Amino acid sequence: MATRRFHDDMTDRPTPGSQPPDSPQPDDERNDPPMEEARQRVMPRGRNNRNAAHMPRTLSQVMNEANDMVVRGDLTEYVPLPTGFDPLDGMIGGGLRKTELVLLGGAQGIGKTIATLQIARNIAMRSGQFAFYLSYEHTETHLMNRLLCLESINPPEVDLKQGVRLKDLYDTIIAERAKSTLRGGDGGGSLQTILRENPKTAMALARMNRYADRLILVKASPAVTTLRAIREMTSRLCDATGGNVTVLVDYLQKVAIHPERATDEAEKVTIVVEGLKDIALALGVPVWAIVAADREGLKANRLHLFHLRGSSALDYECDIAVIMNNKYHILSKEHVAFNPYQARQYRDWVVFTVEKNRAGRAMQDMEFQLHAPYFAFDPRGQRVQQQLIDDKIIES
What we know:
This protein is α/β, with parallel strands linked by helices. The protein has helices at 2-9, 27-30, 34-42, 59-71, 88-91, 112-124, 140-153, 166-182, 191-197, 199-209, 227-241, 265-283, 295-299, 313-317, 327-330, 333-338, 340-344, and strands at residues 101-106, 130-135, 215-219, 245-250, 287-292, 320-326, 349-357, 364-371, 376-377, 382-383, 387-388, 392-393. Strands 1, 2, 3, 4, 5, 6, 7, 8, 9 and 10 form a 10-stranded mixed β-sheet that branches. The protein has a two-stranded antiparallel sheet with strand order 11-12.
């Protein structure tokens, strides 16, 4: 298994750039003329040679490497990785792309973690793709329980009749474990057995098991999980999976920067966002990071990219920025006054606004219904039809 190679490598890994002193050189390099041999030492070849990521290369070398990739059938540089949220994928060119940094901003409780974990799940469901989810907020077990609730309604089907809420899940586990104890502990009290034998959780467990080996979870620490640690773990995952890894960070302001030091939060955020962008570029992976709002942003009627906590580096470094707002709160006053009863139905809808998009149109609004008790969005979204505040109307 690919991820098993990752864990095995954690304890036995050569220093980057080093190789055994007696390792034979390939024939083509051994027989190159002296000038060509020197050129190859200065400009190493090979797309997967990450030690060469910051070395100069001729355009001819870049073209030859790209040609070799296409000949091998490796089109990962050209094919985006869908998030599973439509029409968000259409707005950002089909999905996430390698080397790009995507930021997701929003107020507390808007559903940033729900959306990000659901995207990680959608990516891991694709054969050969791995999602690396670092959470500074929740344990791996809590994230697993959230995924069980999500899988109980099975997006995009969103069958709420089969839904299992977190409290229901906990109650089921506690009750069944108590029954097993009263029966004398006959081995039927394991978590897997409880979930498999309960009609409401059996299908959720089966769905989750389809991608369980491709979703890697880390309970990150604001004091220990530094940028360097994230880079090293991602590098080893790239080695183990052939580079088919998407990194998701929840959330950016909590990433540690030791041994670097920052004089204030703005400088720290600058270091972190630049580091995440460098991880995306150097390792050739998409990076998706949640960003918290500042105090002024939390007071604003509608959150924007400039309200995110930290510095202007957030806007400068990212390739795509998506901002989440509750639809009910940002409907224009005219619309709410005209039909207040209809407006209330939008309380469970979240507007995703693409405020920055290097490769496409920005300031595009779309909406998705949030099913918070099940930690899931209905990924079948739509463009916003109503008028929103900021005097902005989005046409269909």
